[in-house]
Write a structure and sequence with these properties.
177 residues, alpha/beta, 6 helices, 44% helix
Length: 177
């Protein structure tokens, strides 16, 4: 949802050029109401590229269905799913980019790292970069750094907020308003 909102707000693509494939009927209806003009579907179709944003256990089946439908290059934002797994599911010759955006993407201030698969060329990385730049900054890294970036940019801010909350609680506990 955050990525869809950012893509539309940034003008990366018009609503009519975007198709969201969502198996859950309630979520599909919610997205339909929030993003008028965006096509909501239950199956993948031919496309320039596809963002795979599913639970890690569903990735292989979804990527296989996307490739079979002609879904183009693949940008995966599935946590912890390696390029090797994505490429095995996609098959030879399919451009795959692995990314990990973070929660501030919800407000257009995200940070994402992207890594290219074996068949992803400069145009595929540029496509992924432009798409994710609509919700924040993007850094291209070797895949070996994706999990580290996720830990720093994804989990790191949560620790700062936890520390701030603990300091506030301590102050209130000793009588500060």
């Amino acid at each position: 949802g955050a990525l869809l909102a950012g893509v539309l707000a940034a003008g990366w693509a018009s609503a009519e050029r975007i198709r969201v494939v969502e198996a859950n009927p309630a979520r599909r209806e919610e997205l339909y109401r929030r993003y008028p003009g965006v096509e909501m579907a239950t199956v993948a179709a031919e496309a320039e590229g596809t963002v795979v944003a599913v639970k890690p256990g569903d990735v292989s089946d979804v990527v296989g269905a996307v490739v079979a439908a002609g879904g183009g290059r693949i940008l995966s934002i599935a946590a912890g799913v390696t390029l090797a797994v994505l490429e095995a599911a996609a098959g030879p010759g399919v451009a795959v980019v692995r990314a990990m955006p973070n929660t501030p993407a919800l407000v257009g201030r995200g940070a994402a790292a992207i890594a290219a698969g074996s068949w992803a060329g400069p145009a595929d990385l540029d496509w992924a970069d432009r798409l994710l730049s609509s919700v924040g900054i993007v850094e291209r890294v070797p895949e070996q750094f994706i999990d580290a970036v996720t830990g720093v940019s994804g989990s790191g801010p949560a620790y700062l907020f936890l520390l701030a909350e603990a300091m506030i609680d301590a102050g209130v506990l000793v009588g500060l308003s």
